[in-house]
Design goal:
Blueprint lengths: L2 H14 L4 E5 L5 H9 L4 E4 L2 H10 L5 E4 L8 H4 L5 E5 L2 H13 L4 E7 L12 H10 L8 E8 L7 H21 L5 E7 L6 H6 L4 E4 L1 H4 L6
Parallel strand pairs: 1-2, 1-8, 2-3, 3-4, 4-5, 5-6, 6-7
The structure holds pyridoxal-5'-phosphate (PLP).
């Protein structure tokens, strides 16, 4: 077994008690690394750049479930709309409208997570809680029949302060629970809470994550040239 396959196996064993899913974040990594993971039976991969995602999808087996996890520009939605499995990073209503339009063209319903801004850093994208509530109250989601909101995504502050990370993840879990109970649109059924990366996925699981996005702990550190 390769190191990559072994890392995935160990992580999955760890996730089992939480019934959480593993998204293997393969950004910047070669297709051969994905093939390794694929050969061990893994099918869920995450990328944060449209071009890289589309190119890898073209070359790799078509039963891979591709997760878009990075900031998504509206003019690039069309390149992934025909096949993307889940978009984790929907951070504006405008983007959601574009995804709906492109989904119609591809005759699909695209599953999406709404990204919520929970970190202290202002660089991380996402809805503020109040914006999200305002949008959901407006009923405008019902007009977007080709998108389906299946959950929320969040990224905690990059910090050694564990209490802060717990506070941010717990806040998102509470929002998840309150929105789940409050709205019942046909295309709004919250079942996934995507939170946790290599550095904080264990905390995220304790706070109620159902999907962790792990890159470097599987594939090794990334080199951004
Ligand atoms: C890169 C990335 C990850 C994975 O990060 P690691 O620290 O390598 O596990 C998770 N989520 C998002 C949105 C990312 O961009």
């Amino acid at each position: 077994m390769t190191g990559i396959a072994q890392n995935i196996k160990n992580l999955k064993a760890e996730l089992e008690t939480y019934h959480a899913k593993l998204i293997a974040v393969s950004k910047t990594k070669p297709e051969a690394d994905i093939q390794d993971a694929y050969a061990s039976g893994h099918r869920d991969f995450g990328e944060n750049k449209v071009q890289e995602l589309a190119s890898k999808a073209e070359h790799l087996p078509n039963d891979i479930r591709w997760h878009m996890i990075g900031h998504l520009q509206r003019n690039k939605v069309k390149y992934i709309a025909p096949f993307v499995y889940l978009i984790h990073s929907v951070d504006s209503v405008k983007l959601l409208r574009t995804i709906d339009k492109e989904a119609i063209k591809s005759d699909r319903i695209i599953n999406c997570l709404l990204q919520v801004h929970i970190a202290e850093e202002s660089t991380k994208f996402g809805f503020d809680e109040s914006e999200l509530v305002e949008f959901l109250d407006s009923g405008k989601l019902e007009e977007l029949a080709n998108v389906r909101i299946v959950g929320l995504m969040g990224m905690a502050t990059f910090t050694d302060n564990e209490a802060q990370v717990i506070r941010e993840f717990t806040g998102l879990k509470m929002l998840f629970d309150s929105l789940s109970g409050k709205y019942s649109y046909d295309n709004f059924k919250l079942r996934e809470l995507s939170m946790g990366m290599s550095g904080d996925y264990q905390i995220a699981l304790e706070c109620g994550s159902t999907m962790v996005r792990v890159g470097s702990s599987i594939f090794g550190e990334r080199n951004y040239g």
